[in-house]
Amino acid sequence: MGTMIATCDCVGARSPQACVSHWVDPPCVHWVSEPALGRVRKPLEAPEISVSRPSLSHPQRVMLDSVTHSSFLPNASFCDPLMSWTDLFSNEEYYPTFEHQTACDPYWTSVHPEYWTKRHVWEWLQFCCDQYKLDANCISFCHFNVNGLQLCSMTQEEFIEAAGICGEYLYFILQNIRSQGYSFFNDAEETKVAIKDYTGSSCLKTSGIKSQDSHSHSRTSLQSSHLWEFVRDLLLSPEENCGILEWEDREQGIFRVVKSEALAKMWGQRKKNDRMTYEKLSRALRCQI
DNA sequence: ATATCGTTTCCTGCTT
DNA sequence: TAAGCAGGAAACGATA
C-alpha cells in the first residue's frame, strides 16, 4: 500500500498541517497512467481516494488508488504482476533518470524514436495510454524497459507479446512516428481514423481517442483539466513544481503539500477561477473517495 | 434536451 | 474558543 503524507502551510493554520495524500494499492481502482503516483491500471480515469482523519502523530491521509497489472501480463516471471508504474518509476534499475529529469532534458517528442532513452520510451507509452485510451492493463511495461533503438527493432509480434492487442496499436503508432515524424499527431481526426482503420481492437477504452494533439499533451501536460492529473503532473514535473509538492516516500506514493496556497493558486489559474482556495481544492480531492 | 462527470461552493459537525 | 479538517449536499460547467 502506498501512502502519501503531506504537510501543508495552510493559511491561518496554528501549526503546520499534515496533509497526506496517499496512492494506495489494489484491488481498488482506476487511477491512471501516472507513473509516479499510483499504480496504473486504466488510462485516464479518476482515482479512488480514501481519507482518514489526521491526528498529531498521524497526519491526514488521502488515498488515491493504485492498480495492479492484470493477469494478462504474459511475462509474470519477469515482472512482478503487482508491479506498477509507481514501482517501476521509483526503481533506479528500471527508470534511473526519472528523478533527475531537468528542463533541459529533451522530451520524447523532440527526439527521433531510435534515439529515445528508456525514459522517453516510458513517456511515449504513457502518452499513448492517455491519448488513445489504451488500457494499461494490457501492457507489460517490463517488456518496454528498453531504449529507442531496441524499441524500434522490436517486431510487431513482440509488441503483441508485450501488450496484447494494444501492442498492435503501439506498433502502428511507433511505425507512423518513425515514417511520418510527429506530424502523425498533427491532425487528430486523421490519426483517429487511421488508428480505427488499423484494427477494430477492443483495447481502446470506450471513450475512444481524444482529439488532442500531442503538443498539448507533451511538454504542456500540466494543462490537463482534471485535478488528479494536475497533481500528478506537478509531481512529475520538477521544473513546474517549484517546491509546492515534495515526495515524502516515493516508493509508497507519499507526497507532501509544502505550499498549499501556491497549489490552490496554480489550480485556480488552471481552471481560470481566481476564487480557488486550498480548502476547496482539498475538498475536491476528498470528493474523489 | 438530457445524463453524467468532475469539480466548486457552502455548510455543519468534529477534532485539535 | 478558534481554527482546521471531513464530508454531505446542491449547484455548476463541460461533455457525450
Automatic annotation (TrEMBL):
TM spans (from-to): none
InterPro entries, per the entry: Ets_dom, ETS_fam, Pointed_dom, SAM/pointed_sf, WH-like_DNA-bd_sf, WH_DNA-bd_sf
Family: Belongs to the ETS family.
Superkingdom of origin organism: Eukaryota
Keywords, comma-separated and alphabetical: DNA-binding, Nucleus, Transcription, Transcription regulation
Pfam families in the cross-refs: Ets, SAM_PNT
Main location: nucleus
Domain ETS: 225-289
Cell location: Nucleus
Organism this protein belongs to: Erinaceus europaeus (Western European hedgehog)
Identification of the protein by name: ETS-related transcription factor Elf-5 isoform X2
Gene: ELF5
PROSITE patterns with a match to the protein in the record: ETS_DOMAIN_3 (PS50061), PNT (PS51433)
Keyword Disulfide bond among record annotations: no
Domain PNT: residue ranges: 95-181
